[in-house]
Amino acid sequence: MKYYWGWARLSLLFLLLAVSACSNSQNRKSAGVRTEGITREDYIEINRQRVNQEQDLIVHYLDTTGLKMQRTATGLWYRITEEGEGEKIVTGKIVALNYEIRLLDGTLCYSSDEDGRKVFLVGQGGVESGLEEGVLLLKQGSKATFLMPPHLAHGLMGDDDRIPARAILRYEVEVVEVKNKN
């Protein structure tokens, strides 16, 4: 939890800096005031540092829990717990999942038991980019665990309901069905 509050404060600072840099920029320009502040490169560096901090939190979580997972180039962590026998998932397929979404502290955010199966067209958007990336590693019948940093899940704002801002999420998924669009 100590780590969470550290990067939460950094996130708040970033947000305040972004708001102050953007606010009244038109008034400053029209008044002839020179605008100085955070450059694009500064924002990129701040974001890079946050992504690294989030990855460090995930590595710490994996060390603490003893989970063995692999990491993709985007920062998605995954572990296939049961290899499916069915059709491999590809872009353009409709996928139905049983799932649980939890915070790293174990708090349940969403589940198919409460909210119904998640059904979506792969490659169409409308779901977390980390979920789309993860299901492309699976086949029908597969079960997997995904750890998604905020940039692959609900980002800076969370979902205004059960997922807080900048949350790292643990997804437990089971691919129930893979079918064609038509």
Number of helices: 5
**Which sequence of SSEs, written as H and E, runs from N to C?**
HHHEEEEHEHEE
How many domains? The number is: 2
Question: How many strands, what sense, and barrel or not for the largest sheet?
Answer: 7 strands, antiparallel
Shape field: globular
Q: Give Rg in angstroms.
A: 19 Å
Question: What portion of residues belong to β-strands?
Answer: 15-25%
Quantity of strands, as a count = 7
Which structural class best describes the helix and strand composition? alpha+beta
Average pLDDT rating: 85
CATH architecture of the largest domain: Roll
Distance between the termini: 46 Å
CATH third-tier fold name of the largest domain: Chitinase A, domain 3
Helix content: 25-40%
Describe it.
This protein is an alpha+beta fold and 182 residues long. It folds into 2 domains: 2-65; 70-179, Chitinase A, domain 3. Helices cover 35% and strands 24% of the residues. The protein contains 5 helices and 7 strands, in the order αααββββαβαββ. Strands 1, 2, 3, 4, 5, 6 and 7 form a 7-stranded antiparallel sheet that branches. Strand 3 (94-103) and strand 4 form a beta hairpin. Helix 1 (2-22) runs antiparallel to helix 3 (40-65). The longest helix has 26 residues, at 40-65. The termini are far apart. The model is unreliable at 1-35 (pLDDT under 50).
